[in-house]
User: Which sequence fits this backbone?
């Protein structure tokens, strides 16, 4: 059998990852006779065993989980209130506009002027959506 | 909820069920999700962040980000790497934002809130001295090396998964692993 060089760190890593494509029997045979590779392999096993044996806990975690949960719930509630306020403002503005238009029509204003007023108010409201959203969120 | 309660042995379907339950505002499901990935998150945060207050703040930030972004998770990657990436990015941003010093070796593993229990049934086969040596050396390694070693050996992440979490090139991850193990090997041999 051809004598090969030492196995590399990457190859040991592949063995651990289960992605090693080489001949695993050959590797075992090599480990039998090569002290250096055997010691390297043992180090991998020791590190793996020791690190897997520790169980990490943070005593503050349950408290932090509760705080995080309360925070996201507050955010959810606040954004749904924002949404309700936003639509309330939009509906209120629309009612005011309709009342004004009704008044204009009732006093005999021409259709062209009424349509122009509707258009202007529409453009203004559309361009002010961002400000209305900010206003709604500012409670 | 029974599937959710046994989350430690979750398959992809149960994981989906758990995520859906969290998205439906189920607090118990959120607690199970955190319990499932707490160790992974701590393995990322703790080697880097020094003070206990900062650790609490950052953990809370990570949990909030997980909750807020969970609806965008499409199960195209593993939930563990997705959560790991959130924890890693949040940790790096937190350090930058607060201009914090990185954890120094002597601060690691010593906080009373950072409890390490060794519960492995194979414990009897591992000499205490050896354990102490490995943890002693681990504590002296740079935070990123400790993090990568724990992700690889403890959380059993593959190199590709660690790259996905940290966005580091594979050769950099390999190099961190190599240097970390070399330091441990040298001290064991001494």
Assistant:
């Amino acid at each position: 059998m051809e004598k090969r060089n030492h196995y590399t760190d990457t190859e040991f890593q592949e063995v651990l990852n289960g992605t090693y494509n080489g001949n695993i029997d050959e590797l075992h045979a090599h480990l039998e006779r090569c002290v250096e590779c055997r010691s390297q392999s043992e180090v991998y096993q020791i590190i793996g065993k020791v690190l897997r044996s520790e169980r990490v806990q943070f005593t503050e975690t349950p408290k932090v989980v509760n705080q995080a949960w309360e925070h996201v719930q507050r955010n959810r509630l606040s954004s749904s209130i924002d949404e309700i306020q936003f639509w309330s403002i939009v509906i209120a503005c629309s009612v005011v506009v309709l009342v004004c238009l009704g008044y204009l029509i009732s006093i005999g204003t021409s259709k062209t002027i009424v349509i122009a007023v509707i258009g202007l108010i529409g453009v203004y409201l559309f361009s002010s959506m961002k400000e209305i959203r900010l206003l709604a969120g500012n409670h | 909820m029974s599937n959710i309660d046994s989350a430690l042995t979750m398959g992809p379907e149960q994981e989906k069920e758990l995520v859906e339950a969290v998205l439906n505002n189920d607090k118990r499901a959120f607690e199970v999700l955190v319990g499932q990935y707490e160790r992974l998150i701590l393995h990322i945060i703790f080697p880097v962040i020094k003070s206990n207050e900062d650790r609490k703040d950052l953990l809370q930030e990570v949990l909030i980000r997980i909750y807020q972004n969970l609806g965008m998770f499409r199960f195209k990657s593993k939930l563990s790497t997705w959560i790991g990436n959130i924890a890693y990015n949040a940790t790096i941003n937190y350090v930058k934002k607060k201009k914090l010093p990185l954890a120094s070796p002597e601060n690691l593993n010593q906080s009373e809130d950072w409890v390490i229990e060794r519960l492995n049934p194979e414990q009897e086969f591992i000499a205490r001295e050896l354990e102490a040596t490995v943890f002693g050396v681990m504590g002296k390694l740079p935070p990123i090396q400790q993090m990568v070693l724990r992700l690889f050996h403890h959380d059993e992440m593959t190199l590709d998964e660690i790259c996905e979490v940290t966005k580091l090139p594979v050769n950099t991850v390999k190099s961190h692993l190599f240097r970390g193990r070399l330091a441990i090997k040298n001290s064991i041999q001494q």
Remarks:
- The CA atoms of residues 122 and 128 of chain A lie 10 Å apart.
- The first strand of chain A starts at residue 54 and ends at 58.
